[in-house]
Fold each of these.
Amino acid sequence: MREEIKRIPEEALAKQQEYMRLVRFHPDRPKTYYIVTYGCQMNAHDSEKLAGMLEEMGMEPAGERTQADIVLHNTCCIRDNAERKALGNVTWLKEIKKERPELMIGVCGCMIQQEEMAKKLLKQYPFIDLAFGTGNLYRMPEYLLEAIENKSRVIRVDQESSTVVEGLPVHRESDIKAYITVMYGCNNFCSYCIVPYVRGRERSRRADDIVREAEGLAAAGVKEIMLLGQNVNSYGLDSEESISFAKLLHRVTQTGIPRVRFMTSHPKDLSDELIDEMAHNPVIAPHLHLPVQSGSDRILHEMNRRYTREHYLSRVKALRSAMPNIGLTTDLIVAFPGETEEEFEETLSLVEEVRYDSAYTFIYSPRKGTRAAEMPGQIDPQVASERIERLIAAQERITGEILSDMAGQTVQVLVEGTSRRRATQLTGKSGRNINVNFNGDASDVGKIIPVRVTGAGSNTLRGEKEI
Ligand code: SF4
């Protein structure tokens, strides 16, 4: 059944604008802020919205979290260690708060959206001043004002997360690259994943709102946009507008933005229409992140991924025949409950067959409330570590081979800044999303320029600027 999408009305946002104004002129408001972000690009973009609102309230970013008047932790709950890290950092700030009791500590994001976690924070972390979930992030100014005025903690986790909010202020991290969220939530319920529970069902933004945002970014001189969604390939399926993701992507590429990327694509929904659009539209970067998770049909079935190894490989074949030079990346989980040595080897053999540019590799992490957490056959941690090491070694070798084979090619690099290691070196990303370092002049920062590849490191390319 289609869940009704709650588009937050303009009046509700106008109210938040008024709260922002009240905080701005409040004598006791925090003057500086620091945001600690965990997890994916969706969270990184949410943090840009939090920063936008905090700045609208007159606050400035602090260089260090120990110096900030308010520290917000925008959390992730996709893996146990992300949660533990966030809780560890929150606890660490408790000591700072002993010296500076006026320090406000906030927690938001996916972790807090889990009912039990919200209860735990309320009970065991009394020094947290502010907590809110992903569905009501836009109401942060209201909660902050309440906390300041009443000098009390405010914990508001809205379990109803099916919202779409337009028009929040955004403080973007970069003026070269920008994120645009095209849809929120996920309907897929992969058996290991907590996202559908904490981010709600799929809600697509209106195409016109997305295109308007892209036009604004193009006019501001942004060179690359990444369209974001948990499953961008099902963009539009939940809305009255009959527009596919391929058509939306096409419209975004007509705004004058030189380069457009997107993530994440679910292999079961990767359409021929999208492959065709990618192949014929030079604005779309020749890169696709296509998470496979496992190479074993039985494990894919248990994961509820709803595709087979054969289907996945057929999509890779279609992509490569349409775009021989496309770079593919993926996500892989090892030690899913019940995974046998043979099934793990099927993942290894798939990695050898596809030859990804790079892969995010994870040991399965049970998430309470998901189906997989209750499955028998949880894998011994030592076996899991040994498997992931073998997988990483295979992927590193393949990455090294792919990068070495690129010597002599010319790649288009969006120059992002100077290299962390050498100030005379520029660094940027190729269309395939590979880091490229080369000697150059700071006036090239923010441009897309041709670079001839002269060599490769373990996961970066070296090159020379083509004249
Ligand atoms: S597609 Fe699967 S893994 Fe990705 S967010 Fe949805 S449920 Fe989680």
Note: Residues 186, 188-190, 193, 195-196, 230-231, 266 surround iron/sulfur cluster (CB under 6 Å).
Amino acid sequence: MNTFTNAAPPRATAIGVEKVGKRFKDVVAVDGVSLQVPAGQYLGLLGPNGAGKTTLVEMIEGIQSPDTGAISVLGKNWKDHAPWLRRRIGLALQETRFVDKLTTREILDLFGSFYGQGRAATQSVLERTRLEEKQNSFVVNLSGGQRQRLALGVAIISEPEVLLLDEPTMGLDPNSRQEVWDILRDLKPKGTTLVLTTHYMEEAEALCDRIVIMDHGRFLAEGTLAELLAQHGGGEILEFHTGKRPPAGAFRLPVWRPPRRAASVPPPC
Ligand SMILES: Nc1ncnc2c1ncn2[C@@H]1O[C@H](COP(=O)(O)OP(=O)(O)OP(=O)(O)O)[C@@H](O)[C@H]1O
Ligand SMILES: [Mg+2]
């Protein structure tokens, strides 16, 4: 069991994970982890395949139940407050399947209607996800990246207080990835709390206030990018020379080294 708590607590806790464990037969997917995400924080969960990221996020989403420990979202537990919580969270699963014979617009209208949203919300999401051109296309005819953006659109159509995204940019081209980042950055001033899983350190770096590195169901390291670099950067510095002597401290980037047990987490460059 390992425990990480946030050192700056004036904000309310949006997500509380307390000694949570989950096992599938002989596989310990999540091994007694604890975590608090303050309201408004963007948290990135990084780790290699099979680390336990999806299992943990799906327990926070109320899709799976923990075997041990407790989870609270916005101060409530799933057992007693599921409808209340469903109205306040947005989620995109690692793989989302929509009904093929609905159009992009119909999918957004449908999910929006669950939250009392009208056509204006659909229009806003179509624009933000750059799916306007595809609004009348059947889902079956969308590309993989367009479906990813539709899944994000469904997740944000209710203007959720807590957003949980499992690999939201998997398979996206660099431009589409940047567009997703922009959408998520735009939500931050609204006070949205975000947990996203990713294999990309640069994605966590671009978006997240705090990063947790996970493997074998446990948390190996956590902190801001600067803290992780200080703890695990190995003390090496990359210097980028422009031909002129840079001012002290400029153009210097510590080389990020993953902690030993997370060796397959990709480095940022
Ligand atoms: N329903 C299930 N039945 C059996 N084992 C499962 C189940 N779901 C997950 N596991 C196992 O639990 C472990 C954690 O899986 P999980 O999907 O949470 O990892 P992940 O970090 O999301 O990986 P990835 O990066 O590949 O998505 C893996 O060993 C996986 O095989
Ligand atoms: Mg996963």
Note: The pocket of magnesium ion (ligand 2) is lined by residues 53-54, 94, 166 (CB under 6 Å).
